[in-house]
């Protein structure tokens, strides 16, 4: 298939694009910069220059493709606290591409996150059947799922907060490591018993390809390898590798210590991928989060 991929040179894209090419698909990647374009070309992908705000480019690229994988997101806006801009841009981009695909029956694979489950059902083991009426990122997820009954073979992959590997340079794990270095302590909130799910980048990339090729329309899928790693264990692994003390941070001090992650680090987000595995035969084969942290690549810079 000719696959149009947004976010093609980013963290997840840098695994998804090679996965697609190795399987014989042709890829056109959306690139914001010369360096991103050069990276995509070096992998053997075609390039379409543009951003999530270039709706005409998104529309024409989706129309010209046999399938779309949407990975791009305005992470810079999110990290700066402007979540509303990131959410609105994502929804508009998805609306544009889904409209371009029309009643073609072509596949569209969107991206969401398991953390939405933690906000609506904290502490509950999240499953692919969990759905909510609306909210940030959820509105976009619901739009994608609904379009599955209107002539587009849609699916949404919910990514864990920690998608980890040597390809991860700007995600939550590198951010937590940077915070630990800056503070001189690897922290967790309270007793640190709250759980974060995790998945290796290469396992997530494989799921995107399977979703593109096989997922029924309207599928919610979970890219989850570790169902729930206690946050204290994550802090301990970071402390162990940085040779820093590991300490509990009081809940009222979380925002000051963890900055924009202050709320996220307290969430309890155990998440299952059992239904995804049964539906697509997907099985993670790469190291789990703690084993990956202990490989040391996160701490070499």
Verbal overview:
This protein has 301 residues and is an alpha/beta fold. It is 42% helix and 20% strand. The protein is built from 13 helices and twelve strands. The chain has a seven-stranded parallel beta sheet, with helices on both faces. The chain has a three-stranded mixed beta sheet with strand order 7-9-11. α1 links the parallel β1 (2-6) and β2 (26-31). It is globular, with a radius of gyration of 19 Å.
* Low-confidence residue ranges: none
| Cα-based radius of gyration, to the nearest Å | 19 Å
- What is the strand arrangement across the widest sheet? 3-2-1-4-5-6-10
Our count of helices gives 13
The outline comes out as globular
Q: How far do the termini sit from each other?
A: 38 Å
Q: What percent of residues are in strands?
A: 15-25%
Order of helices and strands: EHEHEHEHHEHHEEHEEHEEHEHHH
The structure class reads alpha/beta
Secondary structure tally: strands? 12
Query: Biggest β-sheet: count, sense, barrel?
Result: 7 strands, parallel
Mean pLDDT across all amino acids: 95
Helix proportion of residues, in percent? 40-55%
């Amino acid at each position: 298939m000719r696959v149009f991929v947004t976010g093609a040179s980013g963290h997840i894209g840098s695994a998804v694009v090679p996965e697609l090419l190795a399987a014989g698909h042709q890829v056109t990647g959306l690139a914001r910069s010369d360096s991103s374009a050069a990276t995509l070309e070096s992998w053997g992908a075609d390039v379409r220059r543009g951003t999530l705000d270039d709706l005409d480019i998104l529309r024409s690229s989706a129309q010209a493709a046999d399938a779309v994988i949407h990975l791009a997101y305005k992470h810079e806006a999110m990290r700066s606290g402007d979540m509303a801009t990131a959410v609105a841009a994502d929804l508009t981009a998805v609306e544009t591409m889904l409209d371009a695909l029309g009643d073609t029956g072509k596949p569209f694979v969107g991206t969401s996150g398991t953390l939405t489950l933690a906000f609506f059902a904290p502490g509950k083991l999240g499953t692919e059947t969990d759905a909510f009426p609306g909210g940030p990122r959820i509105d976009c997820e619901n739009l994608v799922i609904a379009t599955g009954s209107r002539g587009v073979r849609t699916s949404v992959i919910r990514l864990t907060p920690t998608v980890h590997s040597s390809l991860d340079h700007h995600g939550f794990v590198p951010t937590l490591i940077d915070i630990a270095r800056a503070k001189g302590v690897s922290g967790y909130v309270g007793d640190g018993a709250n759980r974060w799910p995790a998945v290796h980048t290469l396992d997530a990339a494989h799921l995107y390809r399977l979703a593109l090729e096989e997922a029924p329309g309207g599928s919610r899928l979970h890219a989850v390898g570790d169902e729930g790693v206690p946050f204290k264990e994550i802090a301990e692994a970071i402390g162990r590798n940085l040779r820093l003390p590991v300490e509990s941070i009081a809940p009222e001090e979380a925002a000051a210590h963890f900055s924009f992650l202050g709320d996220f680090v307290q969430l309890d987000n155990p998440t299952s991928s059992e239904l995804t595995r049964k539906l697509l035969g997907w099985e993670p084969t790469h190291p789990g989060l703690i084993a990956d942290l202990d490989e040391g690549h996160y701490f070499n810079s």
